[in-house]
């Protein structure tokens, strides 16, 4: 410790031995919050040295030092010790309000919340009494514009700031800078934010719009589901303020994700959807567009919105009934827009997600999305999270049934996001918190949460009877005036408006709805934005594209992607991989899977195409095969040959992702729906793990185009193959993807050679079609001696949807044709060659969907005399391709021929867990496929 500094300071102070307790109290307050003590004391405590390796010294050691210094002090002067102790108690009181004032805040419009009483907020708890109320005390860091105040005034202002309509939770944040920033903004207005008359009228008219639309829909379409916003009407002024202020601060695009509650209101009163279009949807009318369509409260929308900083493009994401799954989709869309606008900090693009109180606490994808928020691959410069807190989820209102935390928003504390609870019936407090939240996000590039505490005027939907399960709450709601009425009276009492004016504005809004035209003043006709989807509209799978690339070019690129700086020391195993790849690039060695895949990426970035590949081990590849990111063994720096091919090339981003499937796949889906010109890929660690993202696969990838007309070119790389590694490391659940296959919604491929993966990757990007690609990628084939390709296999050719017999068999001697897909082909091939068998031909189906009927028919011309056809697969009979694709197999074989199944028996588990049993099963299915009885 800098003993001299401390002793010198004490020598000039009134503090000495008897006052050591006061110093300890000050120090404890400082440890809780450095801003809770005066600048003078903070400077002293900040000067305390750290121990070795920057570890703080023990508190007991510090206290002992204080005691020693205090005992050595001989003189005492100035304020008495008891007075000093009172002063520190006042500072501790201020700090207590900052920490726990939200627990006594007036947050519930219904007045039903029963928060636990917090002793810390009472004067008695801090040994302060009524006798102290008229005494002047230093306010420390309390940002109210004065250094001293009477205790009664301090107490009143603390109540106003922290226990009014706003309950602020921010003291869990580690950063002192961020806490001080929030304190300055909250405390500076003393709990009474001021608004000009013009803005107050604007807020009122927005509340009139929110309430007016719901009343109109309720009378025009009684009993129809609309998931009314009533009770949370302040969401409309909140969102409009958020968009307007973001535009003032430079935002060009805003992406919004929300579930059902209030969605129709937001569509009409914020994004500017024509009311007549909404009314037509209620009436069951729809455009004659191809596809299934979707219910109205799932639909997205895009528009432009005028702000003082220029027009802002708004995009409301489409969302299924899996409420929170849209959040990472929004983040992915935002990241794509940031990349397109060269906006790495997120200054130009704002993500807004709107949650339900039960869902935000109950659905795990919320945690996953928060966890991603500051990572390299998924950060978006912070997001604004709004919770429409109805205090009831469907029919569950008891907190002990809905969650295990005090607030539904406690999940946000995991990333130290500030949380601003606000009473939705105080619209000025709502707008103030909105300003505060956006400014915080823009200043610190972190997530921030607004908990809009409101109520749900009707049941879960308008046909529900809520009083059956919430009798007390709904007896109160029936008597509760709507926010519009409360705010009108508030402004009328202040002389800001006349109640007759409010009535006229209400009628004007209803008249506007009758006309059916846009009712949002800020709405502007949408201009063409920087992304153009037109080249990808209306194209079939077999549309022609230029896939040709010369062998010379491939060799040139192969040389580039195997080069790295001399001082970049590789791991010995990786160095050996690169030595072999140099031989492959020259044509001196057959190429393996990893080289062909990497070469495909090289051809694309060489053409200026951007690639994004994420996965839990994608840099090197889960199976140690890719090694696109080279780690220096001396200093851990990284080098990517793919990004060092030439100047002005496209860039490839490869990120090892967070340990998540649901949020990550949803993020990549969102990215791909916002950026058609990039190749977006996600790689599962094992294909089995993709089932953690099943909601995304079911609700977005497989059906997004059918339901919402949303194109998406996302590629899923799912390691799949039976290697004796047990039930959880064998199957990517091919059957699920085939079951979901219809309407040419995606392609499902099982490539078996390096050349095939090369062509498949290039086809996915170069073909002017943007639909998902699902790939069953191999494990053992990555290094299989037969799974090799030559440079000529890559040059000037394309992907083969089906591959016929490769051995020199006489077709006339063939008595059985075995069709298969994936790794089992090589097991069949090796066994047939071992047997020197010439009467069984083997056909590979490399694309199972859309089924390549024409290519297979061409192959089958040589086998029209054959009567025995077999489908052979590794997967159990109830899994894999057999049940979902056998109609295609039957259609492919000659009339009168028979088709049989050879593979594992039906099983509840994807695979056995014992290697010996696996080998026995594998040998059996190969034998049965090849043996003609």
Describe what you observe in this structure.
A nine-stranded mixed β-sheet has the order 3-9-10-8-7-4-6-5-11. A seven-stranded mixed β-sheet has the order 15-12-16-17-19-18-23, sandwiched between helices. The longest helix is centred in the first third of the chain and has 24 residues, at 197-220. It has four domains: 1-105 and 116-128, no CATH class; 197-517, Thiamin diphosphate (ThDP)-binding fold, Pyr/PP domains (Rossmann fold), CATH 3.40.50.970; 551-794, Rossmann fold (3-Layer(aba) Sandwich); 802-930, Multifunctional 2-oxoglutarate metabolism enzyme, C-terminal domain (Rossmann fold, 3-Layer(aba) Sandwich), CATH 3.40.50.11610. Residues 1-18, 51-57 and 69-79 have low confidence and may be disordered. Helix 2 packs parallel to helix 5, helix 20 packs antiparallel against helix 21 and helix 23 (662-674) packs parallel to helix 24 (694-701). It has 32 helices and 25 strands. The chain has 933 residues and is an alpha/beta fold. Residues 591-784 form the Transketolase-like pyrimidine-binding domain. It comes from Idiomarina seosinensis. It is an enzyme of class 1 (oxidoreductase). E1 component of the 2-oxoglutarate dehydrogenase (OGDH) complex which catalyzes the decarboxylation of 2-oxoglutarate, the first step in the conversion of 2-oxoglutarate to succinyl-CoA and CO(2).
